[in-house]
From TrEMBL:
It comes from Stackebrandtia nassauensis (strain DSM 44728 / CIP 108903 / NRRL B-16338 / NBRC 102104 / LLR-40K-21). Residues 7-99 form the NIPSNAP domain. InterPro entries: Dimeric_a/b-barrel, NIPSNAP. This is NIPSNAP family containing protein. It comes from the Bacteria. Pfam families: NIPSNAP.
Length: 106
């Protein structure tokens, strides 16, 4: 399993648009073989930072999902929310592997 961590710098005045953008991507990731763990928005402290975390069973599965970018109409529409609103100023993707609790021994 790989987990993609996306760190966003967002426009705090456009949080509503960012939430619409996030809801669309949660749906798309889940529909196309991933598990979206949610978006994490500012609450206290810095008001221009947000995170998204989602996982795919493998890098190959993630790459299949990425083939839909710019091609699938639902993906294009989701990106249009970001592009037209200007809610995302920049973002950076990092791929990580989870360290999960070990199974309990009987």
């Amino acid at each position: 399993m790989i987990t993609c961590v996306v760190e966003y710098v967002i426009d705090p005045a456009k949080t509503d648009a960012f939430e619409r953008f996030g809801h669309r991507w949660i749906e798309l990731v889940n529909r196309h073989g991933g598990t979206h763990h949610g978006y994490f928005l500012p609450s206290e402290g810095a008001s221009d930072k947000a995170l998204a975390l989602f996982s795919f069973p493998s890098l190959a599965a993630y790459e299949e999902y990425r083939k839909l970018f710019g091609v699938d109409p639902d993906f294009v529409a989701a990106d249009r929310i970001r592009d037209e609103s200007g809610c995302v100023l920049r973002y950076e993707r990092t791929f990580m592997r989870p360290l999960l609790p070990e199974p309990a021994t009987p």
